[in-house]
Specification:
Helices cover 42% and strands 24% of the residues. The protein has 11 helices and 12 strands. The strands form 3 sheets. A 6-stranded antiparallel beta sheet has the order 1-2-5-8-9-10, with no helix packed on it. Strand 1 and strand 2 form a beta hairpin. The longest helix is centred in the N-terminal third of the chain and has 17 residues. The chain starts with 6 loop residues before the first helix and ends with a helix.
Length: 361
């Protein structure tokens, strides 16, 4: 025979369920300050800001809703604290690599992001190693990673607090907080070349290093950015050990030239031209033209016309080389040759453009 469940047991069970449900709720929209995230890549590094977005809603923000200066919190640690730069939990900022923030070195990691604004629009940006706290209530100055002065700027009205990135360059960007009619700017910089080269060295230990193309792309970065050329040379040699392509030889020659080893570079490219195809030689010819080596470019592009005598593009490119050198008769001669061969539309248009510029019929 089953025993009846006591009334007291039912009360205990319901209480337990209610307490459990208080902590096990489904996810619902957050109001009135929705959560947001913005991320920006600088080089190969990322900066990510997680925050909540209060609205102005007709309120007086600066000096009222957000008090000026440092303010004692009525809740939590009862400490003097900066503004939490958003709503709800800490606004956080994460750097994938070491960075300079407002001119100061900051290790990679996640930080609480805080601001101070004063009545004269002077202010501060603060990064705290304690990024898990709720807002500013438990702010502890001993956890500061960085404090730096900033100047708050006037800005078009923004109803919903918004973070953005602007003034992006190869190595830097400006993180800005826009709210009401104020903008809080913070410059963030990365040592992009150093980060890319260090990352390449690590990636080449993985499957990326199983083919010559990983080594050639790393070497080409060193060449194009004129950084750690010795390492770049070692990498392109590893690529060439696996495949003697025209492109790989061109990268090696470029590095050698930047190292002042012009004779060695010229020798490598002379050998490359012997086995290069029409497109490769053509590209190399324009590369020489861009370097101001008109005579060498003419020599290389003449090789293409001899090797590919039925190519209108080869004669068009040679004509362009003579035109850039200022040799009008030979330029016209080669453009006429190109046009006589029923060239593709793009080649025809280029030859006709130069003929018109040169005053030829």
């Amino acid at each position: 025979m089953k025993k009846p469940i006591s009334f007291q047991f039912v009360i205990v069970l319901m209480t337990a369920l209610l307490c459990t449900n208080a902590w096990a709720q489904v996810t619902t929209p957050r109001t009135p300050s929705p959560a947001a995230k913005i991320s920006q890549t600088i080089g190969i590094s990322t900066v990510t800001v997680n925050y909540s977005r209060p609205s102005v809603k007709g309120r007086e923000v600066w000096g009222k809703l957000v008090p000026y200066g440092w303010n004692v919190q009525a809740f939590g640690a009862g400490n003097s604290a900066p503004w939490r730069a958003g709503a709800n939990e800490n606004t956080t900022i994460e750097f994938s690599h070491p960075a300079k923030v407002a001119g100061q070195d900051v290790p990679a990691g996640i930080y609480g992001l805080f601001f101070v604004i004063n009545a004269d629009d002077s202010g501060e940006v603060i990064l705290s190693k304690d990024h898990r706290s709720w807002g500013s209530f438990f702010y502890n100055a001993s956890q500061d990673q960085l404090r730096s002065k900033i100047t708050v700027r006037s800005n078009p009205s923004t109803e919903l607090l918004t973070y953005d990135f602007m003034n992006l360059t190869k190595n830097s960007g400006e993180l800005v907080l826009n709210w009401e009619k104020k903008q809080f700017p913070v410059t963030i910089e990365f040592a992009v070349d150093e980060i890319v080269m260090a990352n390449a060295a690590e990636e080449l230990k993985s499957s990326t290093g199983f083919t010559p193309f990983g080594f050639s792309s790393a070497a080409n970065y060193a060449l194009q950015n004129n950084v750690n050329l010795d390492k770049g040379l070692a990498w392109i040699d590893q690529a060439l050990a696996q495949s003697q392509t025209f492109a790989f030889k061109n990268i090696k020659a470029g590095i050698l030239r930047k190292q002042g080893k012009t004779t060695e570079a010229d020798q490598i490219m002379s050998e490359a031209v012997v086995s290069g195809n029409e497109a490769e030689i053509n590209i190399y010819g324009y590369q020489l033209l861009n370097q101001g080596q008109h005579d060498k470019a003419i020599e290389v592009l003449t090789t293409n016309t001899k090797r590919y005598p039925n190519s209108a593009n080869a004669f068009d490119s040679l004509g362009e080389a003579y035109a850039m050198k200022g040799d009008k008769p030979n330029a016209i001669k080669n453009f006429k040759k190109s046009l006589s061969m029923n060239p593709p539309a793009a080649v025809r248009a280029n030859s006709e453009k130069f003929m018109q510029q040169l005053g030829a019929k």
